[in-house]
Each structure stands twice: as C-alpha cells, then as structure tokens.
Amino acid sequence: MYDLFIVGAGPVGCYFTQKISEFNYKLIEEHSEIGKPVQCAGLVGEKIFKYVKKEYLNKIDGAYIHYRKDYFPLRRKNVAYVLDREKFDKDLATDLEISFKERFIDARIKKDRIEIRTNRGLYYSKYLVGCDGACSMVRKYVTEKKIKYLKSIQYTVEFKHEENMVSFFLKPFSWIIPENRKICRIGVISDNPLRDLHVPEGRIISRTGGLIPVGLLKTFRDNIFLIGDAASQTKPLTGGGLYYGIKAADIAGDLFLEDKIYKYDSEWKKLFGNQIKIGMMARKIYERMNETDMEKFYNFIKKNRKKIEESCDFDKHSSLFKILLSSPETWPLILKYILPF
To answer: What contacts 173, CB < 8 A, 6 or more positions away?
Structure first.
C-alpha cells in the first residue's frame, strides 16, 4: 500500500511529490512525457522564485494597456518573467519516479485506505492527491460544487514586439507576451476564443488552449485532496494559476511532513483565499461591464497609472481593487455592478 497516490505530473504535482519524496508514493501521468502539452502563458511574478529555481526566457519591465484604439504604458523594472514552461516542468520532475500513459479511472474510500483504479490496474493508498488539472477526475471525490470555467487559447508566433513589455487588451482580455524580440505568445480568454483571437501575420510555432477553473472550492475530504488547477487555485481575473498552485503544493507538502495535512484546506485559504474571492468579484464586474463603463474604468487606470506602478502587486489583484476603492470617482461605477451580488 502506498502512502500517497498522486494523479498528475504537471509542475504542481511534481513540486508536491518532490516535497514528500521520502514517503512511499506513486505518481501517474496520462501523457507520454513531461512538459507537453503546455497550457499556460508562462508569465509569472518574482514571488514564484521563492519556491523554484530562477530561470526564465525573458524579463518584463511593464505592460501596455489597450482599450479600443488607445493604449498607455505601466512600467516597473522586472515586474514579471516569461518562463520556458517545458523546461520548467522537466526540471521539477528531476529524479522522480513517474508512471507515464497511466490514467486515473475511479476511487473507492475504504475504512483505512483508498482503493484506486487506473488503466493499468488496482492500487491502495492512505492518501489520494488530485493534481490533474482543470478537468480533474479526482475533484468529484472532494466536492460536488459546479465549476465555473474560463475558455482560453494561445498561439506562439513569429512576431516582433517590444522585448521587455507585454501588451494586455481589456475586452476581451487578451495578451501579447514576448519570449524575445521575434517570438511572442498571443492569447485570449473569452466565451469564444477561436473567434476572438487575432493572430498577426507570421509563422505559427505552436497552438494551445483549454479551460481555466475559477472560484473557491473545498479541497480536502476523506484523505483526498486537490492542488493547483484541480483545486481551482487560479486568479479569476487573468486566469494565471502557476504561482498559486506551486504555493499550495508547498503548503500541502509541509503539512504532510508535519502530519497535519487535515489543515490543508484552511491553511491555503488563509494565505490567498481572499485573493480568489476578490478576484471572483472583479471578474463578475468585468463580465457585466458595458463598453461605456469599461472606457471609464480604462481612463481611471490611465489617469492613476503612477500610483498603480508604485503599489500594485503582480500576484495580488486586490492591490488594484484597493486603488479603485480609494477614489470616490470609481464608487458609482463599482456599486453599480457589486450591488446585484
């Protein structure tokens, strides 16, 4: 019998497994190799390097914010980093025993163990860990809550863009992230991303896309727990999930080593659960906002860009919300969309 049976060898699953590797574990991955397919923009803030080696393709010194035909810059040195996601994933998997092309099918909770069935056979474990992404098969054993999904698509394209600046477009939310001067990741989140993604002329190097779960979930039950996208540990406004997922994996690993894994759900929510709550509120406002109000919001950000450059946190979207709430100018706009909640 295993101590832990871990489903999913993405970056979150591998990071967690590295933390608990002294125990008797089994780590399975449905794909044939690590790092593919990549379903992530790979743009992260400085804080993630508290947990992982500081390697990246490009440093980012700010963003151009676009709405309709207007745009303006927000600048801050080294505000973000562009990762080589395939290399990032493979580095985290170093020295781990991984069973590839093995797919989780179902589980049964017994009195003193969990019975787990895959396409390879039957296993028994004290704990089952779902690190199996947005469409997690393990999730249903922890929560029956209906999941809200964002739809996204991203192309990597040969396209010239200012090397150390990203571009964000407000409606629909889309991005241009340069890997270097000649190659960019161009993506969008919308109800119909295939329709809304505008790819410039240039050789398409790769395509990726998928669903992004957002919102707070229960993440621990009956010795089964969820980490990363499986736990909906993502930023609801932009869809980013790598930092939250790695941070949650670190918390889970420490608690498991201390024999306190039962505290996992409450502990990670203490640290960034409120960020997800605020992010969900911001997303609901964003989705309901009409074009006139979006223009007012854009103009407020443009007018207050110095304050935003100085005080906004890449990994805490609540920092932008605080700036909005600090100005009476935005109160009617925010109340208009918050009151229906």
So the answer is: 188, 189, 190, 237, 238, 286
Span 174-220, pLDDT tens digits: 999 999 999 999 999 999 999 999 888 889 999 999 999 999 999 99
Phi, psi at 300, each rounded to 5°: -65, -45
- Structure confidence by residue, pLDDT tens digits, 267-309: 999 999 999 999 999 999 899 999 999 999 999 999 999 999 9
Query: What is the third-level CATH fold of 2-280?
Result: FAD/NAD(P)-binding domain (3.50.50)
Which residues, at least 6 apart from 260, have a Cβ–Cβ distance to it below 8 Å?
A: none
Q: For the chain, what are the domain ranges?
A: 2-280, 289-338
Distances (CA, A) of 332 to 49, 297, 329, 336: 39, 11, 7, 6
Give the model's pLDDT for residue 74: 96
**What type of residue is 263?**
K
The reply to whether omega before 172 is within 30° of 0 (cis) is yes
Q: What residue has token string 């949650």?
A: 248
Angle, vertex CA 52, rays to CA 98 and CA 208, nearest 5:
65
Q: CB-based contacts of 33: which residues, under 8 Å, 6+ apart?
A: 100
Q: Match 């590295």 to its residue by tokens.
A: 18
Q: What is the dihedral of CA 316, 154, 188, 85, to 10 degrees?
A: 0
